[in-house]
Design a protein that fits this description.
20 strands; Cathepsin B, Chain A; alpha+beta
Length: 494
């Protein structure tokens, strides 16, 4: 669509040059069924300072509109549907998926010193979110690409409003942070909301949130009797769940639609956000990478003894890495992150690891003339796992390797890749740990057990990111730890 083209509302005579303003008009003036739109602007987030006009040069309205779910996370407007879908998956109860289970066996192993038990976490049920914009006096902008196709639709039809809004919401994705290599080849500029999130220009996070992050998640200490009669002290942290990867491996084995699956090292803790903490997913993924380094005793593990570093500590680590010249353009691009809620990405994760002498390499995938971007990403991840497994071995369906996990970034969000699967129909999916969502009660119930379930695909839904999800984005970044860690080339079939 041409910039500046006058756009018409398909339901009345309203017009506007900004295609994003059009959708808010539709949702506010023409709500489906006459009900107020749940996406209308209600309030402006606190502790946020908007940038001067000159700082917004190069940024677009397209990429600066976020929705705050009741879970406390700000997500891009285009991700609302999948975000709520994942909330449904994380609430998948054990009874829902196990009613017809063939049986559950005894735990597959005894307790190990220092191993946290699986916590049962309570989070609020998500309610209709609200949109955050930079100017509460103006309607929220949403991209329109279909004004002609909907012009002849009845103005009284609730379905027409819903369909029109639905198409607009899924029509765009914002640009991602540039890779560190690309950053070295360009003049650095101060990034905005598109890259750093809704709090891109705040000077400090709210005091209550900083205090919450400093205290950290609730810690529970219990005593367990081991099979040999010893008393074992078990410390569990409410937002850290160990033992998820072996459960995923068994679910892949039991899903008849899966032809081959690969999992990384099982010593990766699923770290999830605290309720109401907001967009610290990048930090949570760094914590997951560190959990592997620490527990698998990979290169650099001596720097991460004891509990995982907090978000506040990770901010200090990144700032120190910048001081020492590692991806130091990040300070210019972000304006500094210490004590703020600004989003971080691959360059910051890379800087932190390199400052500790931990080898890692970043790869960026963007639009080109070859395969679609998401297909090249899937191909690269598959090759990563295939390199440690014998391609000729057809006796196993699921391969549990000793490979480290992969830091994975797409516009607006990051996750940790812990596996890859190829289905019988030829399609492929990433297997991820998403810090935005806790393990479902069904998955938590299976941790530490050998089990069988009649509905493995339902429990796997929260961990799968396939083409239908990935094709919404035109850029991706991944960060892989360098080879050479203990047992890195090993693998075993399930």
């Amino acid at each position: 669509m041409k910039t500046g083209e006058l756009l018409d509302c398909p339901f009345c005579a309203f017009t506007d040059h900004d295609h994003y303003f059009l959708l808010q008009h539709v949702e506010t003036i023409h709500p489906e069924g006459g009900r107020p739109s749940p996406f209308a602007v209600r309030e402006q987030p606190t502790h946020q300072v908007e940038p001067p006009i000159d700082e917004m040069e190069g940024a677009t309205r397209t990429s600066s509109d976020y929705i705050e779910c009741q879970c406390g996370e700000f997500c891009l407007l285009t991700e609302l549907e999948s975000h709520l879908d994942m909330h449904n998956a994380e609430d998948m109860g054990f009874d829902e998926v196990s009613r017809a289970a063939a049986g559950v066996a005894a735990p597959e192993s005894t307790f190990h010193p220092g191993e946290a038990s699986s916590p049962r976490m309570e989070y609020p049920v998500p309610t209709p979110p609200h949109i955050v914009t930079s100017d509460p006096s103006r309607p929220i902008p949403i991209k329109s690409v279909v004004e002609r196709s909907h012009r002849s639709t009845s103005r009284k039809s609730g379905n027409s409003v819903r369909d029109f809004i639905g198409v607009l919401r899924h029509s765009t994705s914002p640009p991602s942070r540039k890779s560190s290599q690309a950053a070295r080849n360009r003049v650095p500029r101060r990034l905005g909301r598109a890259e750093l999130g809704p709090h891109a220009h705040e000077e400090r996070m709210p005091d209550w949130l900083r205090k919450e992050l400093e205290i950290g998640a609730k810690i529970k200490v219990t005593n367990q009797i081991t099979p040999d009669g010893r008393l074992l002290r078990i410390e569990s942290i409410a937002n850290e769940v160990r033992g998820v990867i072996p459960v995923i491996a068994q679910l892949c084995e039991q899903d008849v639609a899966v032809s081959r699956a690969y999992l990384c090292h099982s010593d990766v803790t699923h770290v999830v956000k605290l309720a109401k903490e907001g967009g610290f997913c990048g930090y949570r993924n760094i914590q997951m990478m560190i959990s592997y380094i620490r527990d698998a005793r990979s290169a650099g593990h001596q720097h991460f003894q004891g509990r995982l570093p907090s978000i506040i500590q990770i901010q200090d680590m990144i700032e120190i890495a910048w001081d020492r010249g590692f991806n130091s353009l990040g300070r210019i691009e972000t304006g500094g992150i210490r004590g703020t809620r600004k989003y971080i990405g691959t360059p910051e994760a890379q800087a932190l690891l390199q400052n500790f002498g931990i080898g890692c390499s970043a790869d960026a995938f963007s639009e080109g003339k070859e395969l679609p971007t998401h297909e090249r990403l899937l191909e690269a991840v598959e090759q990563y796992f295939l390199a440690s497994c014998p391609a000729s071995d057809s006796s196993h369906k699921v391969f549990r390797t000793s490979l480290p996990p992969i830091y994975f970034q797409h516009p607006g969000h990051s996750m940790t890749i812990v596996g890859f699967e190829r289905r019988n129909n030829g399609s492929c999916e990433l297997l991820v740990l998403d810090p935005m969502f806790k393990p479902s009660p069904g998955v938590s119930r299976f941790i530490g057990l050998q089990f069988r379930t009649a509905a493995p695909e339902k429990l796997l839904k929260a961990y799968r990111r396939g083409s239908s999800y990935l094709r919404k984005y035109s850029t991706f970044e991944i960060l892989k730890l360098a080879s050479g860690a203990p047992e890195r080339a090993g693998w075993r079939g399930l």
